[in-house]
Amino acid sequence: QVQLVQSGSELKKPGASVKISCKASGYTFRSFPLNWVRQAPGQGLEWMGWIDTNTGKPTYAQGLSGRFVFFLDTSLGTASLQISSLRADDTAVYYCAREMSGYDPPYTRYYYMDVWGNGTTVTVSS
Amino acid sequence: SSELTQDPAVSVALGQTVRITCQGDNLRSYHGSWYQQRPGQAPVLVIYGNNIRPSGIPDRFSGSSSGNTASLTITGAQAEDEADYYCHSRDSSANHLVVLGGGTKLTVL
After folding, report:
1. N or C: which end of chain B has fewer CB within 10 A?
2. Is B90's CB within 8 Å of A111's CB?
């Protein structure tokens, strides 16, 4: 079945770096973009950006720090999120999610994230 | 504005009907999608394309839209529907950007 499996929880000290992976299976990896969404403790979902799995081109949310970088390894069917210079407020659950799109005639388009990863908890603490 | 606005909290009596709304100019250009998130779990898609339910989502969930407002309706709310609900769209002024609502916490009484 279609699924996204993310890497395990991480505990890091401030200033360190972390790389989270999201492995896709059950579908053609390059056919659909992957989004990254984070959720700080007790907070709502925050969209971070997405990566075009066909071209490797990332799109980042406005205002997202350059410390966050998306990577792709199409040979492994895996997307990754690297966070550098970690801070305490980076503590969150990070999700990847596949994005689909559709068209409702005559002119309304729609997008949706139909499959989500299991989430990776990143805890930044000294 | 590229924001999607949701009421922070809504409650409903068991078995009654509840509507959760999402407002934003983006919804004049794109149909919204809705996600359910139970505590400690990843979000789950419940409605997309205005009123399409993914396989496995109960038919008590439905969607609609009017103008700049998308709505998620639960007809006959169950205890297991208690969760956070988020709406989603693209930014109509920069359609490569995604917008998520702030979320609505639904309490089933």
Report:
1. C
2. yes
Are B33 and A102 an interchain contact pair (Cβ–Cβ within 8 Å)?
no
Integer distance in angstroms from the first to the last C-alpha of chain B?
35
Measure the CA–CA gap between A10 and A7, rounded to whole angstroms.
Answer: 9
For residue A41, give the chain B residue with the closest CA.
B40
Identity at A44, one-letter amino acid code: G
Comparing C-alpha atoms, which of B8, B11, B3 is closest to residue A44?
B8
- Do B30 and A59 make contact, defined as CB atoms within 8 angstroms? no
Nearest CA in chain A to B48: A112
A95 interface with B at CB cutoff 8 Å: yes
- Alpha carbons B45 and B58: distance in angstroms, whole number: 12
Residue A35 CA from chain centroid, whole number: 5
pLDDT tens per residue, range A38-77: 999 999 999 999 999 999 999 999 999 999 999 999 999 9
